[in-house]
Each structure stands twice: as structure tokens, then as C-alpha cells.
Amino acid sequence: NIPENIENSHKSKISIYNILGKRVYQDDLLATKSEKIHRIMISDLPTGIYLFEYCVNNERYTSKFIKH
To answer: What is the pTM of this model?
Structure first.
């Protein structure tokens, strides 16, 4: 789940990369004030280390996660 603090509608992009740098998931979003959480189903991803990237308002946020 990705919580968002939204004051106005905006476009954002979510990407997930595997440890080799290959993009395994991407979603372009148009978030609104009423839309606060976006769910990403990772059950189809194989076990491994991933990099999560969230881009919004010309800013990029990244985080690493491990799927067991």
C-alpha cells in the first residue's frame, strides 16, 4: 500500500525493478483528493530483492524491499 498526501490531482508513476535493474512492474497513476492508497500486488513476483520507485511532481522516491 502506498499512502499519499494529496492536495490536488496529480500524475505519478510507480516502478519496480529487480536486482538486475530490469523493470518488472510499472503503473501510471492519476491520483485525486479522494484516492489515498494504491495497492500493488507483488504475489506474482519471484522471491528476491527489488527496488521500488515512485515519481511525482518531478521528485523521485526509492526504496528497496525483499520478497520472501
So the answer is: 0.76
